[in-house]
TrEMBL record, chain A:
<dbReference type="InterPro" id="IPR015943">
    <property type="entry name" value="WD40/YVTN_repeat-like_dom_sf"/>
</dbReference>
<keyword id="KW-0677">Repeat</keyword>
<dbReference type="GO" id="GO:0005814">
    <property type="term" value="C:centriole"/>
</dbReference>
<dbReference type="GO" id="GO:0036064">
    <property type="term" value="C:ciliary basal body"/>
</dbReference>
<feature type="repeat" description="WD">
    <location>
        <begin position="250"/>
        <end position="291"/>
    </location>
</feature>
<dbReference type="InterPro" id="IPR036322">
    <property type="entry name" value="WD40_repeat_dom_sf"/>
</dbReference>
<dbReference type="InterPro" id="IPR001680">
    <property type="entry name" value="WD40_rpt"/>
</dbReference>
<keyword id="KW-0853">WD repeat</keyword>
<dbReference type="InterPro" id="IPR049546">
    <property type="entry name" value="WDR54_beta_prop"/>
</dbReference>
TrEMBL record, chain B:
<dbReference type="GO" id="GO:0005886">
    <property type="term" value="C:plasma membrane"/>
</dbReference>
<protein>
    <submittedName>
        <fullName>Organic solute carrier partner 1a</fullName>
    </submittedName>
</protein>
<dbReference type="Pfam" id="PF10188">
    <property type="entry name" value="Oscp1"/>
</dbReference>
<dbReference type="GO" id="GO:0005737">
    <property type="term" value="C:cytoplasm"/>
</dbReference>
<dbReference type="InterPro" id="IPR019332">
    <property type="entry name" value="OSCP1"/>
</dbReference>
Length: 336, 380
């Protein structure tokens, strides 16, 4: 179904972090941007579609006005809003937002770090753009920060803090089908596997809470009202977001799942885990029976690699990219 | 990231260090001409083990490690581990210590990478503790210290969730990132590929609590399973076996962390002159200061073995590198690239000063075990 293409070399190897690959497709300029986190640095590559031009940039998580302070970065992801795209970095110190090409930092939010270190780690993790004007970011305490994003400029404000999760946030996802009929806008996941389903607005509304049985949910997606969640047990579960009904459960991987992605136009699902495997699935919705089915399509083994990031490069799932721990390349695959 | 890595780092790296020292000291157990010179007796070996274990597992040292704090740099760790090794009558030259550190770290990296579930990091640590306990079993005081440490580890880590333990593991993996030193024992056993990367098997039992991949189950709105189908997995996994014991004693089941040198006659590592890139953090002075403070506190907890400066310390070269060192132009082959910022200079001077305290002691002209050991190594 897919064959391997030429890999993109990156300046540093990828760190073993959940969802450690973000992709932004810029059709008007025939470019695709990729970001991969390495410890305290974000490696950004811009690749032209003809495969001829690559340019690299590195970003560090630095507190502004403090010359040298850096910290480990947990995640980097693009947030696509109707008016603008922003690149968001979450680290041990706080949250940074850049213009989409990484050139200018437009916002910095510092996390409250205690004077003396506590046993509980402090960091931000979990990034999602919601509807027209929000970016949500998760925190290790379980809190979720909701930022109000203006159509341009740096007048970004913290609108709300949602405190529903009690464990560290692992990942967040907004409804990606583009459908305006879906009631649920956002799903958030935590270390205990609990999932919260939200409706956005002036005040975010909790629609549903799906319990987790103490097994970490490391990656989550929301598509046509269906939550797709990947767990440390290697399982993938499909839930109806608003009701919490379990549609399907897949014993997908033999190790911890690190990344999920959905191609919204085709319903293709990508899962990647520490067991070196990337699997492609197909989701189909039957509105009559209100059920969602999942079928297996394809496997790809990245030998001797614990995969930490996997994303489709386009909305149809024609191509996908993969990163692995200790690998200094982004491996790409396209449909045959 | 995780603030609780240090105790596990020391137990596992320290454990690996003890495995290697034990194996090397046993290997130097016989002399060719049946004289007593150059021989490390059973008693010498036990004394070295007891001294190091006594220091590493002392309450004061463990107290420091158990405080929530960030994981520090390779440089700091190596300095502390050198100091631990020198808590005994043994003296390691810098080249030996460098090699030893590489070997310890690659072994631990392998264990952390292949760790089936994050929770099994504890089983790996307990494997180290079990073996260390065996090394010092004839010294009740040392055994007590190991037991006490073990109990504190169980207490501290036993309640952490899988998610928190995975964060700990991820922090360790960042620490080991980009290290691909080839170890002959690993290469021989096909645990490591010729390019220095570890082999990840796609077969065998799945970790405890994980289902064998291959099944899709679909449910109706009432929660009843309505359809089941299988998919091809591309691997060959079998069901998990029983879970290991997280108690003070018991069958750990997980084999990672056990002493792999125990059947080894040859030196555990013949290092190819392979490039080792170890980039230090671009950490500013601030972080270096914290590291120095940590070092000072850790050193303060260790009693100094009262070795007279006239040189009764026993030198040991762990690996047959002396001849290599003579032959090769050390500036060109097997070398350590250190990337540091200008701000690191002060820190490195400071650390060099501390490390310098453990430089080789002058040889005893009347001949010590060290001399004959060196002579023996030269013949290899």
């Amino acid at each position: 179904m897919y064959h391997k293409e030429k890999s993109i070399q990156i300046k540093n190897s990828a760190s073993a972090l959940y969802n450690n690959l973000s992709v932004l497709r810029i059709a008007p300029r025939s470019l695709t941007y990729f970001t991969v986190v390495h410890a305290n640095v974000v490696n950004m590559v811009s690749a032209s579609w003809d495969g001829l031009n690559y340019s690299h940039r590195q970003l560090q998580s630095k507190e502004p006005n403090v010359a040298t302070s850096t910290s480990l970065i947990m995640q980097a992801a693009w947030c696509v809003l109707p008016s603008r795209d922003l690149l968001v970095l979450t680290s041990q110190k706080g949250i940074q937002m850049y213009e989409s090409d990484g050139s200018i930092m437009v916002y910095w939010h510092a996390l409250d770090t205690p004077e003396t270190p506590t046993a509980q780690a402090v960091f931000a993790r979990g990034i999602a753009a919601v509807r027209e004007k929000y970016i949500c970011v998760g925190v290790s305490s379980g809190a979720m920060l909701v930022f109000d994003i203006p159509t341009k400029g740096s007048n970004i404000t913290l609108a709300e803090v949602l405190e529903e999760h009690k464990e560290s946030i692992t990942d967040m996802a907004s409804e990606c089908s583009g459908s305006l009929e879906c009631i649920a806008d956002l799903v958030s996941a935590d270390d205990a596997g609990n999932l919260c389903v939200w409706k956005s607005g002036e005040e975010f509304q909790l629609l549903n809470k799906i319990p987790g049985f103490d097994m970490c949910c490391s990656s989550v997606k929301l598509w046509k009202g269906t939550v797709v969640a990947g767990y440390g047990t290697g399982q993938i579960r499909l839930y109806e977001a608003v009701t919490g009904i379990l549609h399907a459960e897949v014993s997908a991987h033999a190790r911890w799942i690190y990344s999920l992605d959905i191609a919204p136009f085709s319903g293709l699902l990508l899962s990647a885990a520490e067991d070196s495997l990337v699997r492609v699935w197909h989701l189909t919705q039957t509105p009559e029976t209100n059920s969602v089915e999942i079928a297996h399509m394809y496997n790809e083994c990245v030998t001797d690699t614990q995969i930490c990031g996997a994303k489709f490069c386009d909305g149809d799932g024609y191509a996908f990219a993969v990163t692995g721990y200790d690998l200094s390349e982004i491996i790409r695959y396209t449909q045959t | 990231m995780s603030m609780r890595t240090l105790p596990l780092v020391f137990i596992n790296l320290g454990g690996e260090m003890l495995y290697i020292l034990d194996q090397r000291l046993r290997a130097h157990n016989t002399s060719e001409d049946n004289s007593d010179k150059g021989v490390w007796s059973e008693n010498d070996r036990k004394r070295v083990m007891n001294d190091i274990v006594g220091t590493m597992f002392s309450k004061a040292f463990m107290d420091e490690l158990l405080k929530p704090q960030q994981l520090y740099s390779h440089r700091t760790l190596k300095t502390v581990l050198t100091r631990l090794a020198h808590a005994s009558i043994m003296r390691l030259n810098p080249a030996s210590m460098d090699r030893l550190y590489e070997l310890m770290v690659m072994a631990f990296k392998h264990q952390v990478l292949l760790c089936p579930r994050p929770k099994d990091l504890l089983l790996i640590s307990y494997n180290h503790l079990d073996t260390v306990r065996e090394f010092v079993k004839d010294t009740p005081a040392a055994v007590n210290q190991v037991d006490e440490t073990h109990r504190r580890i169980i207490e501290t880590y036993g309640l952490l969730s899988e998610g928190e333990l995975q964060l700990l593991r991820q922090t360790l993996l960042i620490f080991f990132q980009d290290m691909h030193v080839r170890v002959s024992l690993f290469l021989k056993d096909k645990v490591q590929n010729p390019n220095g990367r570890f082999a990840l098997p796609a077969s065998g039992p799945v970790p405890h609590g994980i289902e064998v991949p291959g099944l899709i189950r679909m449910f109706n709105s009432k929660g009843r399973e309505v359809k089941r189908c299988e998919f091809p997995t591309g691997g060959s996994y079998s069901s998990s076996i029983r879970q290991g014991s997280f108690e003070l004693h018991g069958d750990r089941v997980v084999r990672l962390g056990r002493n792999m040198y125990v059947l080894c006659a040859a030196p555990p590592a013949q290092f190819n002159t392979s490039l080792l890139f170890m980039s230090l953090d671009d950490s500013p002075n601030l972080l270096a200061k914290e590291e120095l403070n940590l070092l000072a506190r850790l050193m303060g907890c260790m009693k100094v073995e009262n070795v007279q400066r006239s040189g009764t310390g026993f030198r040991i070269n762990l690996f047959s590198t002396d001849k290599e060192e003579e032959e090769t132009d050390f500036n060109q082959s097997s070398f350590l690239f250190v990337f540091g910022s200008a701000q690191d200079v002060q820190a490195s001077t400071e650390l060099a000063r501390i490390a310098g305290e453990f430089a080789d002691l002058p040889e005893n002209p009347s001949g010590s075990k060290g001399d004959d050991l060196l002579a023996m190594m030269d013949d290899l």
